[in-house]
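Table S2 (continued). Query chain:
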Amino acid sequence: MTQILEVSSEWLALREPADADARARELALSAAAILPPGPIVIHDLGSGTGSMMRWLAPLLPGPQTWVLHDWNADLTEQAIEGEPPRDRDNGAVSARASTGNLSDLLPADLAGASLVTASALLDVLTSREIHAIVDACVRSSCPALFALSVTGDVRSMPRDELDTEFERAFNAHQLRDADGRVQLGRYGAPLARGLFTEAGWQVSQSTTIWRLDHRQPVLLQAWFDGWIDAALEQEPALSAKATRYRQLRTSQIERGELAVEVHHVDLLAWPRT
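Corresponding output:
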């Protein structure tokens, strides 16, 4: 898989509970209902340390084998070496790692797959990569469940006059050319949905929201710092305003006064019967 961005195992561990709370459980149960009987094989794209596997495996029947795709072998090694999750029938899940370039994904790579999954991935992919993933799923008739693609909408309580400026700059940053890769940001999920629909597949969509507040102060601070740093990288002219804005929001986090909703969308796509 092409190196998409540097992601630390510490950040993945920090966000895992919020991811688990936000993902659309109803789409996961719908995915379980369309799986074939018998042993199933799930290919998880951009798997990181395996948080999607840990969340989804207990909602699916067994026995299960997961194929974890990530450019960072160190992350998938952590997932494989950790205690395996249990499936819906309380059986241990098996997992193996795979590396490769998403833009080169072929239907043959999904041979025998029952389901393709990904979490927090579509918004950091290029158009070529999403086309390759959808084409591989369609040509292999493999359903796909894509969770937590950002929509670009962030709602902070209390509001501040600078929220809109920094949100706009962050969204522009997501669309930047990163070492020759033009990421799709909030347009990633709509593109995937459109491609599946064009192929004649059924697609269900659910709004999923990260809700961060005084209960997750460390995650809220880490998210805010990354959000504002990305905005400043995109628009350095905001630096003068950022000083007051950062101080205000950080003090609100420390006092437990700030709550943030980060909006995402989950998609389930499957072939019509």
